[in-house]
Amino acid sequence: MSRQATLGTRGSDLALVQAREAAGRLESAHPGLRVSLKTIRTAGDADQETSLSTPGILEKGLFTGELGHALLSGEIDAAVHSLKDLPVEPQPGLVIGAVLERADSGDCLASKHPGGVQGLPQGSLVATCSPRRANQLLAMRPDLRIADIRGNIGTRFQKLAGTPGLAAFVVARAALVRLGESVVPPGIEVSAIAEMLPAPGQGAIAIECRFDDAATLALLSAIDHAPTRLCVDAERALLKSLGGGCAMPLGALARLEDGKVQIRAAVFEPSGIRWIAGGPHPPHT
C-alpha cells in the first residue's frame, strides 16, 4: 500500500526547486511513498514593500508563519524552508525534522562590471537588504553606497538590468546553483565573494513538521544529513546566544574538522550602514 505525504512550500521558483528536492529525497528513501506539494503564500510574498531590515520583521515569521499555521492545522505534513529564514525560536508545536545536505554556503556579487567587488567603479550603488552583507561590503569597499532590494531572484536580476544607477546586488550562491545558469541575464557577471561570511544556516534546506507527529518525524529522519545538522545547529546556537534573529548582522560558518565543529563568526554594527535608498536605517543592536 502506498503512503502519501504533503509538503508545504512558498511559490517562488527557488522555493519550488527546494521543495522538489526534498520530495525526491523522501521518495528515494521510502519506496512506495508519494509526496505532493502544496503552495502557500506567505506574508513576505504578499508584502514586497517592507524592508527586511525593519526591526523584528523576520523574527515574526515573514516567510515562514503561514506555513507553520498550515502545519498546525493539519493542512500539510511538513514544510520546506531555506533554513536561514527560520527564526531561531521555533513556532510552538513545531520542530525541524530534517536538514538536507548543505549546498555552497557563500555569497556572490551579481554585477554589471567585471572583477567582483574590487572591480566596481568608485562610489557604486550595490543592493542588498541584509545588514550583514552591507557591513562586509563596506569593510571591503568603504566608498560603496548601499540600497535596499526586495523580490525573488528573477525580480532582482530584472531590477539590476533595468536600473541604470544600480551596479550590482548580492545573492546566495546556493540559490543560483539550484536555479541554474539560465536565471542570470546576458551582461551580468556573477563572482564569489570569498571574504564574506554567510548568514547562519545559509545554503541549507530545512524541513519542519509537528513536534508530536511521530510518523512524519520518522520519514524525515531518513534524509536528515547529520554533518550539516551539526554545523547549522552551531551557527544558529551562536545567533540565539547573542540574542539575535534572522536580521542580526552576524556572519557565521561552521565546519567539521577532525570530528569537531569549528566555527568562524563575526558580528557587525548595523547602525553604521549608509542605506541611501529603498528602506530605513536598521536599528542599533
Structure in a nutshell:
By secondary structure, this protein is α/β, with parallel strands linked by helices.
Q: How many DSSP-defined strands? A: 13
**How many helices?**
8
In percent terms, what proportion of residues is strand? Answer: 25-35%
Give the total of domains: 2
Order of helices and strands: EHEHHEEEEHEHEHEEHHEEE
- Termini Cα gap: 55 Å
Top-tier CATH class of the largest domain: Alpha Beta
Radius of gyration: 19 Å
Which whole number gives the mean pLDDT? 88
Low-confidence region ranges: 51-60, 277-285
List the helices and strands and how they pair.
Elements: E1 3-9, H1 13-29, E2 33-39, H2 43-46, H3 65-73, E3 78-82, E4 94-99, E5 107-111, E6 125-127, H4 131-140, E7 145-147, H5 153-162, E8 166-172, H6 173-179, E9 189-192, E10 205-210, H7 214-221, H8 226-241, E11 250-257, E12 260-267, E13 275-277
Parallel strand pairs: 1-2, 1-3, 6-7, 6-8, 7-13
Antiparallel strand pairs: 3-10, 4-10, 5-8, 5-9, 11-12
Question: Your description of this structure?
Answer:
The protein has 285 residues and is of the alpha/beta class. The chain has two domains: 3-103 and 203-225, D-Maltodextrin-Binding Protein, domain 2 (3-Layer(aba) Sandwich), CATH 3.40.190; 107-197, D-Maltodextrin-Binding Protein, domain 2. It has helices at residues 13-29, 43-46, 65-73, 131-140, 153-162, 173-179, 214-221, 226-241; strands spanning 3-9, 33-39, 78-82, 94-99, 107-111, 125-127, 145-147, 166-172, 189-192, 205-210, 250-257, 260-267, 275-277. The strands form three sheets. The chain has a six-stranded mixed beta sheet, sandwiched between helices. Strand 6 (125-127), helix 4 (131-140) and strand 7 (145-147) form a beta-alpha-beta unit. The relative contact order is 0.19.
